[in-house]
Amino acid sequence: MASDPSAQADAADSAIDSVSVLSEDSRRRMFTFIRRARRAVTRDEAAASVGISRKLAAFHLDKLVDAGLLRARYETPGGIRKVGRQPKVYEPTDAQITVSIPDRRHELLADLLLDAVLTEGAGESAAQAAMRTAGQRGRQLGEAARDETRPGRLGPERGLTACERLLDRYGYEPVRETPTRLRLRNCPFHPLAAKATELVCGMNQAFLSGYLQGLEVNGVQAVLAPEPGECCVRLGPSDPEHDDVTAEDR
Asked: Where is this region: Disordered (predicted)?
């Protein structure tokens, strides 16, 4: 979970916008033609590739540029300098489009597992290394969030409010069941969690426990509480008998 979750949320919004832009047939076909050309393409070439006018092609190409899927510049094809204005050419950007509803973050799980493989100690099993790296990453993110927001002492209610921001950005779909209990309606690692439930759920719990530690949330723990179709982890009070808002949190 190396990347900034807010940036990931922005990327998801951008991906949805990009898919919307590509829903138009001529626009999508021109985009495919330009990607496969492996060079800068003129408006005339793009128009000819789908059989539309140059003016209409220019409209669609500019939409693709606005969506971040293409970039445009002025250049003479072939590098031959001619008298007059150089034509506008288009080429694909490095943008990658991934849209998943509900949100899935398989790349985050892969990143943690890669770290585990690279740092596995002589006395560790692969599973132990995975739990360790997940806990460390969660703690690092919690510490970074605390340094950024400087929230002071965090009891259960305020602590869970702080956690909700990260959980929402990572696709957990947090729902407040009580002031001190947070249910996670979506598993970002489904369906991989179903293939290796003990490993993935254990890493998930270790990551969220690490985040609570790094953020210094008091009176809350991440516990395994699997429900069909939901995340296997729930955040709740360390002492189940005290599931109310404390005076410190009011």
From this structure: 133-155
